[in-house]
Amino acid sequence: MNTSYLIAHVQKVIDLNSEEKHYFTSLLKPQQFKKKTFVLRSGDICKSQTFVLGGCLKVFYADKDGLEHLVKFALEGWWAFDIESFLLGKPAFYDIQAVEDTMTMQLNKENYDKLLVRVPKFEKYYRTMLQDSYIMLQHRLTQNLYLDAEEKYRRFTEKYPGLETRVAQKDIASYLGITPEFLSMLRRKRIPTQVYPDHSKK
């Protein structure tokens, strides 16, 4: 299995020797998810952390009316899992679903615990990852509270360049907290000549 991408991601935070790399990769499980396949369902226990090697996942929750509220897209180099469910064994609040064919590496809870005991420096890596996630969540909350739809859309295109050609318009609208119709209006206003594929019909 190709673990070099994940190793490089980890080594942005901590240095690993050959033995530590070998041990870490021995704990991983490659897993491919076809488009629209669920990685995690709300109410289930999140048993693994999922690292995206290629493709895209969406993390969302559905309200009582079945309306999806998309929290984040997990692209190449991103982790996706329900942190509370994974760490505490509680039912997951979020659904995680592949929005295109996606290749991942998974680390289950038992192996995660083994890793932290055997290679304690991974504590720093996960602490950094959680800090980054918290900062990202704080930015999301601030933007949702204080920015208008046009500015949120502009920042979305900067954060996720090229993603609009890969995912359904309804998912982008859900992430921005607007209707697909209003998103279409924003697109026409911003780039009148650009045509985006509608992946929701595939």
From TrEMBL:
Gene3D superfamilies from the UniProt entry: Jelly Rolls
Sequence ranges assigned to domain Cyclic nucleotide-binding in this UniProt record: 12-116
InterPro entries listed in its UniProt record: cNMP-bd_dom, cNMP-bd_dom_sf, RmlC-like_jellyroll
Record's signal peptide: none
Pfam families associated with the record: cNMP_binding (PF00027)
Protein's name in the database: cAMP-binding protein
Native source species: Fulvivirga imtechensis AK7
